[in-house]
Amino acid sequence: MITAVDTNILLDVFGADASFGRVSADALRLCSAGGALVACEIVWAETAAAFPEEASFVEAMTTLGIGFQAIDREVAIRAGTVWRSYRQRGGKREGVVADFLIGAHAFSRCDRLLSRDGAFYRSYFEALKVVDPTTPAS
Description:
Elements: E1 2-5, H1 7-14, H2 21-33, E2 36-39, H3 41-48, H4 54-64, E3 66-68, H5 73-88, H6 97-109, E4 112-114, H7 118-124, E5 130-131
Parallel strand pairs: 1-2, 1-4, 2-3, 4-5
């Protein structure tokens, strides 16, 4: 089982978030026990920005066992297609394309996505299994 990990989970854990740190860490451990953990370059970049230096970031990701898995052309095209659907539904946010890349990566290359944005990902990637540590029995 391959679990893609979303940025919000990693920031919860690395930042010891008072509201979500514990549930995100527990969900990360549970997913890790069931197989590999990966993150695409979007998640790596967003998470790296929270660290003061590259070495500490790489060490933290290595400690958690988060592998790097790049987005390919097929995933990028799927993300663009789904983002177009979002815009046609009236979505106004321009910068949200990163979320569609994360979702398309998880949908195309992984078995599930670990994210606190379960409702968002389920609405655009209906067949994607999303583990949301804030939602019972996700």
